[in-house]
Amino acid sequence: MNTHFKTYHPYASPFDPCKPILEKTYSTPPHLYMGFQPPNLPQFTPLEALRAGTLWKDFYDPWYNSLEKAKGGLPT
Q1: Residue 70 DSSP class
Q2: Beta bridge partners of residue 27, listed in sequence order
Q3: Whether this model's pTM surpasses 0.90
Q4: Rounded distance, CA 22 to CA 9, Å?
Q5: Span 7-29, pLDDT tens digits
Q6: Residue ranges in 1-76 assigned as alpha helix (H)
């Protein structure tokens, strides 16, 4: 199973004066997990596509930073 969120553990020096961040998370776009674009994918309306940044709903990936709660849906 593929997940759009990956984590990694950066090096934390014992001499770093700040508290280290032991685990970092990043998002990967959905198109990385599709080998090809299947025919007849559902599409956004033209206005929704401009807001989403893609015409196809399967390629839409809302990005939220780690401090925001994911709301889902299209940006307003």
Answers
A1: P
A2: 5
A3: no
A4: 6
A5: 999 999 999 899 998 998 888 88
A6: 46-52
List beta partners, residue 7: 25
Domain layout of the chain by residue ranges: 5-59
Question: Cα–Cα distance between 65 and 22 in angstroms, integer?
Answer: 17
- Name residue 75's amino acid: P
Q: Which two tokens stand for residue 63?
A: 């990005």
Phi, psi angle pair for 46, to nearest 5°: -55, -40
SS3 12: coil
Provide the pLDDT for residue 76: 46
The first and second tokens of residue 28, run together, are 């990967």
Per residue in 53-65, pLDDT (tens digit) is 889 888 888 776 6
